[in-house]
């Protein structure tokens, strides 16, 4: 059977999941699957799960596990031929267990970034809600201030990126994420990266994936000749 590469990336809001996922997708040719993008697509398409998800997001809540897994697992089934990196899922132990029954993961990347750094980053984060594109006024600013590069639409700052909301969000993240990282640690696939800068974390992630991905893809090549 051919073996593909399957990874998840975890970390608190602002830890760089989106930024690092894009780099991984670009450098290693994996598909970057973002749970936030899936949620937004389902809301736009008014699917049953999308309609349910919208009621929670409007209140600034996480989407419940059963809605999230119903929305996400069928999309993963469409990806059986591809290597992928999943960003934003799982966020809870229930989601991690649901994912575990659907597929075998090779690597779980865990970003551990100091609180002060997260606060500072999210203060400067601006997003283009229809596409999910993320900018940072210092790190990756748009070409024109306040305007999306591709569509020319105005950018917005999310309510829950404000410093007051953020501390509560981060506390909640820690409580919910710990059982998930423990779960992956017990499986021996957890790799934690701690730093204040994505550019310093990136070479270490790249080295890790260089050691993991060629082996797996050469397995896949052998398998495909039989
Ligand atoms: N795994 C998940 N479980 C529950 N809700 C989710 C999950 N993934 C996404 N969502 C919902 O979709 C919304 C958008 O997700 P997305 O990951 O794009 O943004 P976010 O919560 O601002 O994350 P971050 O700040 O870490 O980038 C979330 O706020 C949440 O309500
Ligand atoms: N100053 C600075 N900003 C960074 C760095 N890495 C990412 N950012 C920016 C990009 C975003 O505006 C914000 C959060 O990054 P993100 O990739 O959206 O994180 P996440 O919420 O998906 O985990 O921080 C970084 O290393 N330094």
UniProtKB/TrEMBL annotation:
It catalyses: dGDP + ATP = dGTP + ADP; dADP + GTP = dATP + GDP; CDP + GTP = CTP + GDP; a ribonucleoside 5'-triphosphate + AMP = a ribonucleoside 5'-diphosphate + ADP. Signal peptide: none annotated. GO terms for cellular component: mitochondrial matrix. The keyword Nucleus does not apply. GO terms for biological process: ADP biosynthetic process; AMP metabolic process; ATP metabolic process; GTP metabolic process. GO terms for molecular function: AMP kinase activity; ATP binding; GTP binding; nucleoside diphosphate kinase activity; nucleoside triphosphate adenylate kinase activity. PROSITE patterns: ADENYLATE_KINASE. It is found in: Mitochondrion matrix. Residues 124-161 are annotated as: LID. Gene3D superfamilies: P-loop containing nucleotide triphosphate hydrolases (3.40.50.300). It is an enzyme of class 2 (transferase). Keywords: Acetylation, ATP-binding, GTP-binding, Kinase, Mitochondrion, Nucleotide-binding, Transferase. AMP binds at residues 35, 40, 61-63, 88-91, 95, 169. It comes from the Eukaryota. A ribonucleoside 5'-triphosphate binds at residues 14-19, 125, 134-135, 198. Residues 125-160 form the Adenylate kinase active site lid domain. Consists of three domains, a large central CORE domain and two small peripheral domains, NMPbind and LID, which undergo movements during catalysis. The LID domain closes over the site of phosphoryl transfer upon GTP/ATP binding. Assembling and dissambling the active center during each catalytic cycle provides an effective means to prevent GTP/ATP hydrolysis. Involved in maintaining the homeostasis of cellular nucleotides by catalyzing the interconversion of nucleoside phosphates. Efficiently phosphorylates AMP and dAMP using ATP as phosphate donor, but phosphorylates only AMP when using GTP as phosphate donor. Also displays broad nucleoside diphosphate kinase activity. This is Adenylate kinase 4, mitochondrial.
